[in-house]
Design brief:
The structure holds two protein chains of two kinds.
Chain A (H helix, E strand, L loop, with lengths): L8 E2 L13 H5 L23 H4 L2 H4 L9 H5 L26 H10 L7 H4 L6 E2 L7 H5 L16 H4 L11 H5 L12 H11 L1 H4 L5 H5 L9 H4 L5 H7 L17 H11 L1 H4 L5 H5 L36 H4 L1 H5 L12 H7 L11 H11 L10 H11 L24 H6 L1 H5 L4 H8 L16 H7 L1 H8 L4
Parallel strand pairs in A: 1-2
Helix pairs in contact in A: 26-27
Chain B lengths: L1 H14 L9 E15 L2 E7 L9 E3 L5 E3 L6 E7 L3 E3 L1 E11 L5 E12 L14 E11 L3 E12 L2 E12 L5 E10 L11 H4 L11 E12 L2 E11 L6 E14 L2 E10 L4 E13 L3 E10 L17 E11 L5 E12 L14 E12 L4 E11 L4 E13 L3 E13 L7 E13 L4 E14 L10 E12 L10
Antiparallel strand pairs in B: 1-6, 1-7, 1-27, 2-5, 3-4, 7-8, 8-9, 9-10, 10-11, 11-12, 12-13, 13-14, 14-15, 15-16, 16-17, 17-18, 18-19, 19-20, 20-21, 21-22, 22-23, 23-24, 24-25, 25-26, 26-27
The chains are: A mainly alpha, B mainly beta.
Chain lengths: 476, 487
Amino acid sequence: MTTSGCPSTYRKSTMVIVALAMGGAAATGVHAIVERAPLFPHEEHDGLFPLCTGCHAGIETGVGAEIFPDEQTCLNCHDGVVEEAVAWVEPQSHPSNLRFSHLVHMERQQVAGEAWDCASCHGEGSRPDLMTVERASPEGCLTCHAHEAPSHLIESRDCAACHTVLPEARGLTEEVIAAFPQPASHLEPDFQGSHGTLAVEEGNSCAFCHSQESCTRCHANGAALPAVRALATDARVAAVVSETAPHYSEPATHLDSGWNELHGQLAIEEVSSCANCHTESSCRGCHTGVGPAALNTLPSLAEDDPRGVRVAVLAVHRSGFSGQHGAAAAAAAASCESCHTSDTCTTCHNGPGGGFHPVNFLQMHGPESYGRESDCTSCHSTEVFCRSCHVSTGMGPEGNLRVAFHSAQPGWLLGHGNAARQGLESCASCHRQVDCMQCHAAVGSWSINPHGPDFDGDRLSAKNVSSCNLCHRVGS
Amino acid sequence: MREFRLACAIVAAWTAGPNGLAGQSVRITGVTHAQYVDLQPLRVDSIPASETFGSGILRRAPNGAVVRCLTGEDYCLLSGAGESVYALPLLQDVSVSAWGLGRGVRFFARLRGRASASQETGLWPKGNDAFDALVAYLELDRGDYRVRGGRQWMVSGLGFYNFDGASVLYRPVDGLAVEGYGGWSLARGLDEPRTSASLSAIEPFAPDDRGMILGISGTYRPSLATSVSALYQREIRTDRRDLYTDRVAMDGVIRRWGMSLTGSLEADLAGRQVNEAKLTGRFVGPGRLDTQLFARRYRPFFELWTIWGAFSPVGFTEGGLETRWRSERGSIVAGADLSRRSYDETSLSSTFGPIRSDGWRAGLSLSGLLSDIWKADGRYDLDVGFGAAKSAASVRVHRTLPENGRLGFSLQAFQRIFEFRVDEGTVFGLGVDGGMKAGSRGYLSGTFAAYRHAVGRDSPGVDWSQLRASLRWEWTLGPEPGMEGRQ
């Protein structure tokens, strides 16, 4: 009994053709999937199934769930009464780097005006009266398809030597493995950035050329990556990659203007992602000392281990950031707590003991304080910190204003107004209020008016009349 | 010492509490810091007017130093370097974090002890103040709200304020936080009330009332790319007679398309003045050129209890450019920056001639990896202003050592023009710094530097030659509450 293009009888076979595509594989043509067991005894069902597509409808439709019959189909007969009960589980996929799509081939045959014939590949058995099914022969493919490789990498031309996962391809030597051609995808500009995603989505594909050593050459965290763990170990690959230095490309995100400030937050949220390229030593270039907590979750390697990006950004924040971080900290823009504990604020903002300033800052802080590069008073009390030190070191007066500190200008006392209005904070870092009141108070002094043209005395007295009374002694 | 005893009592009660509570623990971190500085304070001296050269108010001593002679007086005054004295302050910071007594309950304190072996009292600020409780609060954090009571701090666009009181933080949705706080205010940078002896000892007109602080702030961060905050804060005498401060601050950051824009504003509501407004744009262009442009308006702020605000201080407007380039692998980073500030009109004339009404800053920097473990940094800065100026260069090479160790060597040379003084010369410095792990949870670091002041002929004698050294030991006791991964 024959039907359209499908032999009516099928030969008992030790190999079952499992559709070369399961579900999406059939639609996308991603994998060839071959399984050698369990076997379905086609020949014992001779005459029962007139059409191949009766059981394998998915081959024509591309619906993965229909490529194999379900167990219920078997139970229609094998119910334990009519026929012996059986257990049927559809074959599982076996990875291969061969790709075949029934749909594509069917369409091509239709375009060529040819009938789709299962037996042309699977039914050339010696007993056409039986339901004989054979595994498609590679030679059949090669009648149309030239081998893509310019020459076979091995002399034996044994298909299985290459078209199986690498650990099973024992016939491949280290030299052959080292000479594997790179697929076109590997030459894409963003391949290094995207290969992790591809490895997760198409992990089986990687296994034909790669072992764990391929990945751990760069990924110090390889043991923690499922896609890497899914690969086998292979001494040949280990030997091949041992002489190759790790290579890391810089993700586009790292070039963003806010990256330095933001990376700490992202490290907390997904430090495992950092660990793909970075080790603890990557961060130690900048994070000396105890360092942020997330740093301690990165792989820690021996000093001579070449893996891990050596970060050469010598400062996370721009120079001068320490004096300008107020806005970012106030707006919580980059979540300072990613790297800094809440203690960090009090370490610096409560006076000495921090390390906020460079070691020789004391000698050079004059210009910076005049230019107000940072808000000194946020940490230092002008009176207790600045003035007491200036007086102790002889810079500030101890009551006697006749000392020769302002020695560059002979008429300093008479003409200091401009300097005072431009840098009054610096004046207050040495002088007490009473020093100025010796001349500028309205009562008991020279009554030299210090107020400028925009001075609003009424408003100021409404806010704090006590300060007015210091000079004007109103009511006293 | 009252705060110290209170903090100790709370920690003791905590540790003596029921041990069966899961997750209950105390973590103590400490920083022991010792510093040595020797210097020569400026001392006033006099010489007979007859021994000076020149005429007028400013003359020269036989050694070339500038002296100040008042008409009719037999002696002229000069200031020069006095005897070398040293300061040796010792600081001991201890942070205590205790948690686990109820969900979200935590006690945190940061205490500072001081001792001073300085040769002269007062040579190091607060060197004689034996103890400060910088922070000591009890906290209840339940995710969407947080309550704190005790001595705490507020970090905001106004900078850093601490106070004794309570704060309530409410987070209704992710990225949005509103906080209200109030209590007794503390003098900024002092950790003590404005009525403390520390302040009155140096300022005769220090406030006689401690004052209260009240404030409310809001922060909204819908994403990592955008965040804004606003704060209103008022400090007032407890008798409500006078204000000490009345201020607002607003800050914001927007990041888009590889660029960022940061804006900040501080304003004094009492004086109706903007104290600081700054807008900064930053972008990374082709070739990894990181460029930052900023414009800034600044006018000093003084608390209302002082008379300084009545002296009509003027502000300045500043603009600048900072740029940084790094090589593809980041092994070389080069930077340059330039800014100029221009002061407002002071509405005053000066009898000794006009002073600069502008200021410049320029800098060049170069950093590079010499190898996997050696790095080098070099920098030159020029700062020219109306009150002070400097020209400074420094080079530092440093290397990483096993076990998180580090070692660095530095060379410096700088000139500083003192404020309104005739004073020239170059200071040369040589320094070494290093750090190493001290035990499994400790870190020891130190610095040493020697400076030699090559005094110019016109110098009146100030001598910045000095030795500086510091030693810092950071240590931790107690468990880490799930933050350090492997521990």
